[in-house]
Amino acid sequence: MKKFSVEDIRKDFPILSREVNGKSLVYLDNGATSQKPQVVIDAITGYYTNENANIHRGVHTLSQLATTAYEEGRKKIQTWINAEHSEEVIFTKGTTDGINLISNAWGRSNLKKGDEVLITEMEHHSNIVPWQMICDEKEAILKVIPINDSGELLMDEYKKLLSSKTKMVALVHISNALGTINPVKEIIELAHNVGAKVLVDGAQQVAHAAPNMRDLDVDFYVFGLHKMFGPTGVGILYGKKKLLEAIPPYQGGGDMIKTVTFEKTTYNELPHKLEAGTPNISAGIATATAVDYISSLNWDEIHVHEQELLDYATAELKKIEGLKIIGEATNKASVISFVVEGIHAYDIGVIVDKMGVAVRTGHHCTQPLMNRFGIQGTVRASFAFYNTKEEVDLLIVALNRAIKMLA
Q1: For the structural domain made of 6-30+298-406, what CATH number should be given?
Q2: Backbone angles phi, psi at 369, to 5 degrees
Q3: pLDDT at position 9, please?
Q4: How many CB atoms lie within 10 A of CB 123?
Q5: DSSP readout, 243-285?
Q6: 42-295: what CATH class?
Q7: For the chain, which ranges sit under pLDDT 70?
Q8: Is 6-30+298-406's fold the same as 42-295's?
Q9: All structural domains of the chain with their residue ranges
Q10: What is the 3-state secondary structure (H, E, C) of 1-29?
Q11: Among residues 53, 62, 365, 406, which one is catalytic?
Q12: Is 135 labeled as catalytic in the residue annotation?
């Protein structure tokens, strides 16, 4: 493992050397999607150039090569997240798809009238709407764990909400809008004490550290590869083997069956039971490459670098008159959301883009959270290990110029 160098890392990502609107790109929208290293891009084109074939079914050489490469992605993820079995790793379309799979397949089998599902006030819509839908269908009750003004969960309130009626606790590991890192291990233990299952949305976590399934003792964990420097269109659902074996298939079709007659169908074993149809093969293959890439990095040094970026950007932003940061949790990832008094976030985003700075604006698919703070949306700057303090400086220059124009 070589010493971390942000200058060397940036050379691995071709898009970081391009210009936008005549300015060098400053990419600070990593919470939405991360950029891809050249090795991941090469893995995708390599599949289509040399191995393009469907997987699992063919006996010919190309199919066998593609199948082996695709399943290698599953094994790499298993090791990376410390899952006990490879069949506990289910390929999905992304984080949202994984949550919907569990809310539908597990929810229909396990929820009944009067049961309770707990979510938090900081959830992404993807971890709100599926639970609303299944609770409506099963006449279960959706309850919300509140947060404080710093964007931290009120753990005493969480403990009060837990009861024998609680069947599922679904929460985000790191808030995409606030950067708050939730105490998921404690939350999981408390939920298990009342017999509830836990689903963790790890979409933001996986860009900053590998989640450890056996250490967390989590029941279900979901994330997408596109936020951990991998391809779009592919995600991972981790589930404890006994739980995945107990739930029915979410979708019917090819590969998830053993036998089909017009009278009856028998289902395949894990993981194939939950992976109907032809998957995103090139993305599955590139998954292995993405995991290899991030596993080669010195994450102890990366954590220091990202914390320095967060601290520096926070301090510089607070110097801007009228700017307010939304979410200042003690335990926080390198995500900063803010508002500027009297100026719409969208207008700021448009103007700083003219100066090559890419930030996110809006409600970040967390409208209930925005309502909690009494705002319509924020500007969000989200950092990855390839970002630099010089880019923070360029953000500050662009913001000051935008504010001057819009005030």
Answers
A1: 3.90.1150.10
A2: -70, -40
A3: 97
A4: 25
A5: HHHHSPPSS-SSSSEEEE-SS-EEEPPTTGGG--S---HHHHH
A6: alpha beta
A7: none
A8: no
A9: 6-30+298-406, 42-295
A10: CCCCCHHHHHCCCHHHHCEECCEECEECE
A11: 365
A12: no
